[in-house]
Design brief:
Blueprint: H1 2-8, H2 19-29, E1 36-40, H3 48-55, E2 58-63, H4 66-79, E3 85-89, E4 102-108, H5 116-123, E5 127-140, H6 149-158, E6 163-164, H7 165-174, E7 178-184, H8 187-208, H9 212-230, E8 235-243
Parallel strand pairs: 1-2, 1-4, 2-3, 4-5, 5-6
Antiparallel strand pairs: 5-8, 7-8
Length: 244
């Protein structure tokens, strides 16, 4: 995992997204005042900064990889929101907080690490009554049975639990949440992310390409990029906004 992180250091974001998508999801939350927000899997702050800007609240940004947090703090200072961001090393599967501490829990592109269903259950106790859970996740945009075989095979290995946005919403309702809304991230999010990743892969290949694990990450990522560009209507990222 650390090798994966090292390869992904220096990206603007560690997954697809944009300031506009973060803002759109926040608007669906319908929260006002100065909310207490817990961000899980913050990476280097690609979502943290706009979240602090649009929410007016305090964001506790957590991540297991310290170099990402160090960069997050630098970016927060440059954006003038460092006084409303607390950075902490923490595993999303081991949240260290009092029950009902947060108005909102935010997780862009990382819930899959522990599994969406587990995340829905594990994070819920830390939300205040009526609190919001916002997460983005890779989803099928079609019945996976109808997807091209190459695509099915890739995701059967890369993210076997991937499902449709509707299935995520049904799981959220089964876990006791109310779905306030969901939307697919736009094409520009993917283009910007993959352009950034391709440049990063070219930079790190001379360093990590001879390492078997590094080679595997580089090759797998290039296959993913190629599949998305070939089948952009088959899968994407869905943002889900829920109320406890």
């Amino acid at each position: 995992m650390e090798l994966f992180f090292k390869i992904y250091e220096g990206l603007k974001r560690e997954g697809p997204g944009s300031h506009a998508m973060t803002r759109r999801a926040w608007e669906l939350c319908g929260l006002s005042g100065k909310p207490e927000i817990l961000e899980l899997g913050s990476g280097s702050g690609g979502a943290t900064i706009p979240l602090a800007q649009v929410s007016g609240g305090v964001v506790t940004a957590t991540e297991i990889y310290r170099p990402f947090l160090d960069r997050l703090v630098e970016r927060a200072k440059a954006a003038g929101v460092a006084d409303r961001i607390v950075a902490a090393v923490m595993d999303m599967a081991d949240v260290r907080a009092e029950p009902e501490s947060f108005d909102c829990i935010w997780c862009e592109g990382a819930a899959y690490i522990m599994g969406v269903d587990k995340a829905l259950d594990h994070w819920k106790p830390f939300l205040k009554p009526g609190g919001r859970l916002c997460f983005s996740d890779a989803v099928w945009r079609m019945d996976p049975a109808d997807a091209p075989a190459r695509l099915r095979d890739f995701w059967a290995e890369g993210y076997p639990a991937m499902r449709t946005a509707g299935a995520n919403n049904r799981a959220a309702e089964a876990a006791g949440y109310t779905v306030l809304g969901d939307f697919l991230m736009d094409q520009a999010c993917w283009d910007d992310f993959y352009d950034d990743v391709e440049q990063r892969l070219a930079d790190v290949e001379p360093v990590y390409g001879a390492d078997p694990d590094g080679r595997a990450v580089i090759d797998m990522t290039r296959v993913e990029i190629g599949l998305y560009r070939e089948y952009p209507e088959s899968w994407g990222y869905s943002f889900h906004v829920l109320r406890k």
